[in-house]
Amino acid sequence: MADFLIAFGSQTGQAETIAKSLKEKAELVGLKPRLFALDENEKQFNLNEENLCAIVVSSTGDGDAPDNAARFVRRINRRTLADDFMKGLDYAILGLGDSNYSSYQTIPRKIDKQLAALGANRLFERGEADDQVGLELAVEPWIEQLFSVLRTRFDISEDRMNAVTEAAQVKLNQVKTEDEKKELLLKRKADEEEDEEGVGGVSGVDMLTPEHYDYPEVSLLKGPPALANHANLQVPVAPQAFLVSSVSHKKLENPKTELKWQNSCKMPGVVTEPFEALVVAAEFVTDPFSTKIKTKRMITVDFGENAKNLQYEPGDAIYFCVPNPAAEVNFILKRCGVLPIADQLCELSIDKKTEKINAQLPGHVHKETTLRHVFTTCLDIRRAPGRPLIRVLAESTSDVAEKRRLLELCSAQGMKDFTEYVRQPGLSLADMLFAFPNVKPPVDRLIELLPRLIPRPYSMSSYESRRARLVYSEMEFPVSEGRRHSRKGLATDWLNSLRVGDKVEVLGKEPARFRLPPLGQPKNNAGKLPLLMVGPGTGVSVFLSFLHFLAKLKRESPESFIDVPRILFFGCRDVTVDGIYMNELHGFVKDGILTDLIICESEQKGERVQDGLKKNLDKVLPFLTPSSESKIFICGDAKGMSKDVWQCFADIVAADQNIADLEAKKTLMNLKKTDQYIEDVWG
Ligand SMILES: Cc1cc2nc3c(=O)[nH]c(=O)nc-3n(C[C@H](O)[C@H](O)[C@H](O)COP(=O)(O)OP(=O)(O)OC[C@H]3O[C@@H](n4cnc5c(N)ncnc54)[C@H](O)[C@@H]3O)c2cc1C
Ligand SMILES: Cc1cc2nc3c(=O)[nH]c(=O)nc-3n(C[C@H](O)[C@H](O)[C@H](O)COP(=O)(O)O)c2cc1C
């Protein structure tokens, strides 16, 4: 009784977080759900024997299943399964995706369709949460629908149901007089100045400080009148506390070497233990002072003896274990009031008084550690705080106006504000703490609620056994939209700091479909495949590994290398400014590895890769007829590109075959299904 299954498939942790909070909510109303990754099917549970299951799943790669759901997707698609294999199962499914990808929601749709085909009963329409507009907009209504089903099914009383939300008691009119408002403003200013002073009694510490930002009248700090005056805000109950940290006087001398990365906790998509690599080259490949383009830098690492840990193929990427910046960690720890003890031995355990069912320490933190270590290497302090965390921040301020606004932001009525002022601008925890200077969160609550810091993958642009080379493009987020410190992307900032001789920790990444030769084909096949490669920006990087591999193949077994079209479309703004790997690429043309190098310059000639494709129909069209031989590979660093290039190919097919757009997209979809059209797009 009261038992049901919650299953997730999650690559970067969002679906897992939603599934976990679903479990917590269900427990609050007296249910006893079990929570597993979808790939635990046939191990921890058998979906065909379950009565009720809520599934939260994303897509990754090019409409691929997350690595902890891939096996499940394969298993439920076996031809041998009977039409009523899942009969008896009631399910609800929530998909996470990003509508900027041409394979939007592919996996949730696929699972939904297949479960229904196997006789399972869909309880209500699949939810589609879109990262582009803010996941919460679809997540919350879906959870509401699910709970209305659970309520009837398990006969949950209204009282119990009310345990999930509560009416916020804090009203703005409690701080309404002009004098009080003035006083508050002065207090806020003084608090901010204290943040700017930075050191908080700890000298010589690198400390993040806020930059000046004028919040508009309606902003993160203040909602529109309808929300600000709402008398009956419905806010989620604060997540149950369950963890305690106790810090001793002992210092942990060198946690970095004493503690294994993230407690050796398994991570989807990672196939090796972390191992050390040495930076042997690091150079800018574009002008770092140019304001016109994103700075690009090339790094080469040597795996040394560890090379045996990693057998990489052209198209593969490696993960870098990226730490959080010291100044930001210091700022957060200072706010929590624990900076002076951040380097002492800290023991984490489950609070014996917790009411949370089956409370467990997050697997990615050590039981014995230091707070600095936890916040530097284990927790994601950059991802925009979710509503449960905002709820806890609301509990952690002494300022009634701050509390009210934070409650608004996590309330049912404040969903639009949350999306607009927190999620979309990608505010970090530090941004929130700057905006609400009286919030002093308990450090234990942050360890409970901050998501796991995930390593960042980079495609290799080389093909050597011991070394890997990569090019990255610097991400920049200026002060605006509520962000109080201009920052670079977490990984790209850290990569910027690397110098020759530095040691870094890397992890092997599960091979994806984007590789040469395709998975399951013998290596020598690669030399026989006609290739159409589309790689704007740093997207070209991965094709360098293809081309180096082909050059080696041609040298070492010329009989396997035959003359077929190998065409590369490279897109940049101005080849003299951000044309990367140009000498190598021209060398490949000269050596007969590439048959065509087509460069599309947006600034000089107003040409994007899509224009290049349309201009070269004679070369492109042969790739668009179904064939087991040829391959179209698209790799890029902007999510929007996925959709644009997809549309461009659809236009080409539609015009060539004189068919409608929808029909043309069906043709393309078939090419995708057979892996003739493969994308790898990140953004
Ligand atoms: C298989 C694969 C291969 C890859 N290969 C390469 C490669 O060869 N070269 C390369 O440069 N990159 C590559 N990437 C991307 C790379 O892994 C990183 O995602 C990228 O470098 C950014 O990382 P970061 O930590 O610097 O940025 P982050 O700190 O993670 O910030 C970037 C992301 O955070 C979100 N975000 C953060 N702040 C904001 C904000 N203010 N407003 C809106 N959104 C915000 C956005 O989603 C944004 O995309 C690859 C990715 C994959 C999946
Ligand atoms: C490398 C990468 C590839 C992605 N591919 C797709 C895709 O093909 N289709 C889609 O709908 N969303 C895609 N997404 C968006 C994710 O599904 C979305 O961000 C989701 O919230 C991630 O959830 P997760 O953290 O649980 O994996 C992709 C995201 C990344 C980073």
UniProtKB/TrEMBL annotation:
Enzyme Commission number(s) from the entry: 1.16.1.8
Residue ranges annotated for the FAD-binding FR-type domain, each copy included: 272-517
Keywords assigned: Amino-acid biosynthesis, FAD, Flavoprotein, FMN, Methionine biosynthesis, NADP, Oxidoreductase, S-adenosyl-L-methionine
EC class name: oxidoreductase
InterPro entries the UniProt entry points to: CysJ-like_FAD-binding, FAD-bd_FR_type, Flavdoxin-like, Flavodoxin/NO_synth, Flavoprot_Pyr_Nucl_cyt_Rdtase, Flavoprotein-like_sf, FNR_nucleotide-bd, NADPH_Cyt_P450_Rdtase_alpha
Cofactor: FMN; FAD
Alphabetical list of SUPFAM superfamilies matching this protein: Ferredoxin reductase-like, C-terminal NADP-linked domain, Flavoproteins, Riboflavin synthase domain-like
Pfam families reported in the protein's UniProt record: FAD_binding_1, Flavodoxin_1, NAD_binding_1
Biological processes, Gene Ontology terms: homocysteine metabolic process; methionine biosynthetic process
GO CC terms: cytosol
Glycosyltransferase recorded as keyword: no
An MF annotation (GO) of this entry: FMN binding
Domain Flavodoxin-like: 4-147
Protein name: Methionine synthase reductase
Species annotation: Caenorhabditis japonica
